[in-house]
Amino acid sequence: MSIKNVLCNKAPIIPTLGLLIFGFSINFASSSTAEAHEYTALMRAKKYAEVERAVTLKLQAEPNNADALIAKSSLILIEGKDGQFDAAQSLTEKCIAAHPERSECHEAFGNVVGSKIVNNGILSALGSAGKVRDAFIKAIELDPKNFNARNSLLQYYLQAPSFAGGSVSKAQNLVVETMKISPAAGSLLQATIELKEEKYARAEATALAVSVDGMETLIDMQRGVLTNLGHTYLKDKKYVEAERLFKEVSQRYPDNGAGNYGMGRLLQEQAKYKDAIGFFEKANLVDSTAYGYYRIAQCLQSLKENAKAILAFEKALMIKPGLAKKPRADVEDQIKSLKGA
Predict the structure, then answer these.
(1) Within 10 A of 201 (CB to CB), how many other CB atoms are there?
(2) Its pTM surpasses 0.70
(3) pLDDT digits (tens, 9 = 90+) for 2-24
């Protein structure tokens, strides 16, 4: 996704993980549920309470069940509360200890440590960045077709500085290796590199040429490249190009809110607040997100509809996955300000 430089500028397509290492923003396109497991469908459907109940029962009967441990750690990341990341890390470490051969356990560990870095700040990256990288490398060694882990490792190589193991050449080598296993996945990784190198037309063409064949992981990767490109155009104020990409995303993935969210951001950026709200609401109809309500609230605030803005801000605090620390703090401040006005 993401690339998710600032969470509030992106539509969370599925639960995603952003990692700030040494001042570099790294986006993990994999869902926080790692590779597909017993609870993946429920997680994608955001039936978190149902997952919680099922996982609790499973762990009572089988304390070392890998799928349940991964899902439990994912639920903690989705909750996003301070002080819980150590518990999530312990779950993934337990998964690795009991199932060292399971690729998903190592991927989940990388996701959790990455989330801890986001939550705890840049200094925590000094001793943890390598753990994130190594976890994804191990996940790939154990399962070469774990394309979520490959995508996450690629992002690491592209964003981290050289002294932390970042390298465009390493990223390109990963693409070459991936091409041998899956030309489709390899091409999507290549498109990500092209996007990073600001070869926007080539990145778009490369991503659109891929046939994802209904594979959820590849669909997520393709949608992520196109959505990221749209937001890159938006950041650069290339509004015509951004609109074209967001419409493409909406047409290709009608069951996902990313395209409509992007259109909302495009219109919000141009101070067309009423029209923007309409697109954010469309996005929320198919994929209700905290960021969708956050942006609706901002638009309502700009329209001086403060009572409605308060309700939308409060809704943004209730949705899971939750807002990142910075936008969450902003929402809390805005609610206090609006209620005190």
Answers:
(1) 10
(2) yes
(3) 323 322 333 333 333 333 333 33
